[in-house]
Amino acid sequence: MAATTDAPKSFADLQRLLADDIKVKVAGVDVDGVLRGKFMSKEKFLSAASSDGFGFCSVIFGWDIHDSVYSRELLISNKANGYRDILASIDLSTYRRIPWENNVPFFLVSFLDPDTHEPLTVDPRGIMKITTERAAAVNRQCFAGVEYEYFNFQETPESLVQKKFTDLQPLTPGMHGYSLLRTQLNNDYFHDLFDESAKFGVAIEGHHTETGPGVFETALAYTSALRMADNGILFKYLAKSIGMKRGVIPSFMAKPWGNLPGCSGHIHVSLRDTSDRNIFAVSDAELANGRTDAAFEDTKFMSSEGESFLAGVLEGIADVMPLLVPTINGYKRLVGGEAFWAPNAITYGYDSRAASIRILSPPSVPPSATRLEVRIPGADMNPYYALSAVFLLGLRGIEKKLKLQTPPISHFSPEDRKSGKVKMLPISLESATTRMMRPDSIARESGMLGDVFVDHFGGTREHEVKLWNEAVTNWEVERYIELA
Q: Which residues pair with 350 in a beta bridge?
């Protein structure tokens, strides 16, 4: 079984790896984090791999998660340009085989502008590559981890429709975080997720039940940022595929139940230099007592560059919220407070799960593991966008040598909020999109995401808001149909 460590080093290697195959599966990623792909004959695939790639319909950037064309014309893919082909460039380093599909070979593609052959900025893998190249330009490497929480239901795609997506049956009853007992129920499915991931080249660090009926949490092993984003998308694909075989629907929706905790998609980030040293870590000389020039006690076991990275994230996080929380439903998860640990303010703190940015540094972890955990995203995030946004903000902070302006805070009162001592995050996709798209948004800066990305992706979020504003929900009918 091949994983990405066995990726072909040459075209001859590729031919050898595929010698006994007749078809290959390829896929790219759309703005909602959905894999879009197809089977290709081995001959067609090898022809594309030996050239610049193959044509792929750009409509995948011109329609939404349910294949409805966006409400207004967008820059990359639209009626005016006839939804022309873009160039799908095969990334041979992503080679693996799909163990639950007769070991068919699988590759991810990145989408390029057909005229310039440059990465397409709205392509999730494209913006992630642009981000890592900007880091490399200043001799930095981006590393990351992703944790997913997700509800699991004893349902099928057919039963979801038959039940009209209501009264769904959780995989297990009750609230059983870290339970060893609950994993005995549906034991084969629980173990398949871990075991098949290993075969698929998606390394898992931890896998357990989380609090909530039928909830699991899976932490993917820390690795380079692009590989991490790939693994995040591919884990969802794997979980849904394995679930179908077992009569289970895993849901990465951020808030499927109003009265229960939502599903997080926490991301961990750090930078390394060209010698593979974690540049967020303090020096050996500072390890005993921390930095004497640290901005605050909570950051004394982080480097000054790590502080500037954190300051950059804090300064710009509200301007990139749609990349962290891209759905209408995602904002319903951000209720704040310790009950659900879903922060909704611009806060940070040492080893604090109540803060939006959790600092992990000595003494709780070794210096080499010093990192930031961004706790804002839900499981419905697109990991390429979320990671790119955080790294671009952090690199901007380092470039500008930003200093932390506010002290660490995890708990705050309504008075702190009213006085402006604590700044809040946008509370809806509509307000978040408006903020991201305003002319002076940090997201629009040339060293950040830029106008092309913001206008196109922002347009997709405006479409999502439009559909929500036009929808009549069950809550409205139940509340008003008789008594209004």
A: 359
CA-closest candidate to residue 456, choices 40, 21, 29, 76: 76
Amino acid at 174: G
pLDDT at position 338 over 70: no
8 Å CB contact between 425 and 356: yes
- C-alpha separations of 269 from 145, 282, 308, 442 in Å: 7, 16, 14, 20
Specify whether the backbone of 454 is left (phi greater than 0), alpha (psi in -120 to 50) or beta: alpha
pTM: 0.96
Q: CA-to-CA distance for 355 and 363, rounded, in angstroms? A: 18
Please report which residue ranges of 19-152 form alpha helices under DSSP H: 42-49, 124-137
Q: Where are the alpha helices (DSSP H) in 202-270?
A: 225-246
Q: Residue 450, exposed/middle/buried by CB under 10 A (0-12, 13-18, 19+)?
A: middle
Is the separation of the CB atoms in 152 and 171 below 8 Å?
yes
Q: Which helix (H) or strand (E) element contains residue 70?
A: none
Predicted confidence (pLDDT) per residue in 202-225, tens digit: 999 999 999 999 999 999 999 999
Residues 189, 24: Cα–Cα separation, whole Å: 27
In a 13 Å sphere around the CA of 101, the CA atoms on its Cβ side amount to 16
102 Cβ contact partners less than 8 Å away, ≥ 6 residues apart? none
The alpha carbon of residue 31 and the mean position of all alpha carbons in its chain are separated, in whole angstroms, by 11
Prior bond of 363 cis (ω within 30°): yes
* Helices 304-316 and 383-399: angle between axes, nearest 10 degrees: 120
Cα–Cα distance between 14 and 9 in angstroms, integer?
8
Q: Which domains does the chain have, with CATH numbers?
A: 4-120 (3.10.20.70), 141-475 (3.30.590.10)
CA neighbor of 225 nearest in space, from 307, 302, 135: 135
Alpha-carbon separation of residue 325 from 133, 332, 376, 378 (angstroms): 24, 10, 8, 7
Longest CA–CA separation in the chain, Å: 73
Per-chain mean pLDDT for the chain: 94
